[in-house]
Amino acid sequence: MKRRDLLKNLTLGTAAMVAIPAWAKNWSANDLPTGKILAPSDEALFIDIIDTLIPKTDTPGAIEVGVDKFVKAMIDTMHTEDDQRVFYAQIPVVDAFAKRKQGSAFSSLSTNEKVECLGMIEKNEDATLQKFFKTLKNYSIQGYTGSEWYMTEKAGYEYAPGYGHGCVDVEQ
Fold first, then answer.
1. Chain segment 50-92, per-residue pLDDT in tens
2. Nearest alpha carbon to residue 144 among 24, 44, 48, 22
3. Count of domains forming the chain
4. 0.85 exceeded by the pTM?
5. Residue 106 falls inside a structural domain
6. Residue 22 lies in a domain
7. Segment 14-50, tens digit of pLDDT
8. Would you say 98 and 110 are in contact if contact means Cβ atoms under 8 Å apart?
9. Of 2, 124, 144, 163, which alpha carbon lies 20 to 30 A from 31's?
C-alpha cells in the first residue's frame, strides 16, 4: 500500500468516526431526534416492514425498542436530502411490488408471504428498491443491536463494570 493511500484511508476513517452521531452507538427511543413525518399509510407500511424484519417473539421486536425511530433518525441525519427523498419514496413502491407479485397489499399478507416478498425485493432487478431495502435492513439490524434493551439484556453491557468486592473482610 502506498503511503498516500494509507494517509487518505486514515483520514477518511477518522472523519467517519467523528461524523457518526453519539446516539447511533447506544441509544434508547427517548434519545433520538424527531424523524421525518410520513403520511399515515406510509408510516404504517414502514413500521410493518421493520416489524417483519425483526418481529416480536419471546423477546421484544424492533418496533417495541423503537427501531423505526432509529432508522428515520439515521436517514434524516446521515443522508443527503436527495437520498432521503428517494428513500422515503420507495415505501409505497414496496406495497405496489407486493400487489404485483403476491396479489395483495403488503399489510394484508401473512407473515410468511411478507418474508417471501421482502426476499424477492432483496433480489429484485430494480436497483433503487434494492438499495432502499438494503439500507432499511442494515439500519434496522444496527438499531436493534445497538438499542438499550439489547445492550443491557442480551449483550451483557454494564454501565459501570467491575464493582468493588474486596477480598478482605472488614470488621467494625
1. 999 999 999 999 999 999 999 999 999 899 999 999 999 999 9
2. 24
3. 1
4. no
5. yes
6. no
7. 655 555 555 455 556 666 666 677 889 999 999 999 9
8. no
9. 163
